[in-house]
Write a structure and sequence with these properties.
The protein has 4 helices and 9 strands; from the N terminus they run H-E-E-H-E-E-E-E-H-E-E-E-H. It is α/β, with parallel strands linked by helices. The protein has a single domain, classed as 2-Layer Sandwich (Beta Polymerase, domain 2), CATH 3.30.460. The radius of gyration is 21 Å and the shape is globular.
């Protein structure tokens, strides 16, 4: 597998040159980062190039890097190598080459944090349709060229994007059926926000007896 990854890494570097922002091998997996402006040309070649042939998009998902790597230990050290610096939102694409029996992860960052936007890959892998709708719903990423970009998991009256790090855990609205109006209505959430601390952390002597 290590040899296969080295061959793939070499093929990717040769095929895309300066279009590759970074190419990292870690834990037996290869992750390539490309710019949003280059993603469609890169993905098309990843699918069609005989040395690559990533025919299948297994999955794509959104991610919010706003607090990534910022958690610290008691002594102040960061849990990650360093806090994330750069664009906040990205989309991760998990690809499979059936021909070469190898996988690849591709990360694309949206350039605008206020309105994350990138091209739809439905024209390359049609299976991306509902995956992009999910990322749009949960993270607010807009996929240009998607034929039917609308919410997939939340209801029609939902406000906000629940997987963003700044979205409140209790939500912003709640729904109930109103018998007088004979319809479902939305109201401000009535649950007071609270932070639950595990007992092992809030009781200094817990487990020592």
């Amino acid at each position: 597998m290590t040899t296969d990854l080295k061959i793939l890494k070499s093929n990717l570097a040769e095929a895309f040159g300066t279009k590759v922002v970074s190419l990292q091998e870690r834990l037996g997996e290869l992750t390539m980062v490309v710019k949003a402006d280059d993603m469609l040309s890169v993905f098309t070649r990843l699918r069609d190039d005989a040395d690559l042939r990533f025919e299948e998009l297994i999955d794509l998902c959104g991610i919010d890097y706003s607090t990534y790597g910022s958690e610290t230990c008691e002594d102040g050290r960061y849990l990650a190598d360093q806090p994330h610096q750069g664009p906040r939102f990205a989309t991760i694409y998990h690809l499979l080459s059936i021909t070469h029996n190898i996988r690849l992860r591709v990360r694309v960052f949206a350039e605008d944090d206020a309105m994350p936007m990138m091209d739809s890959v439905i024209g390359v892998w049609p299976v991306a349709n509902w995956h992009e709708r999910e990322a749009f719903d949960l993270y607010g990423t807009i996929f240009k060229g998607h034929p039917d970009l609308r919410r997939l998991l939340t209801d029609y009256g939902f406000v906000g994007n629940p997987f963003r790090k700044d979205f409140p855990l209790s939500g912003t609205v709640e729904m109930r059926y109103d018998a007088d109006q004979r319809r479902v209505i939305y109201e401000p959430v009535s649950v007071e926000p609270r932070e639950i601390t595990p007992r092992t952390m809030r009781e200094e002597q817990y487990g020592r007896n």
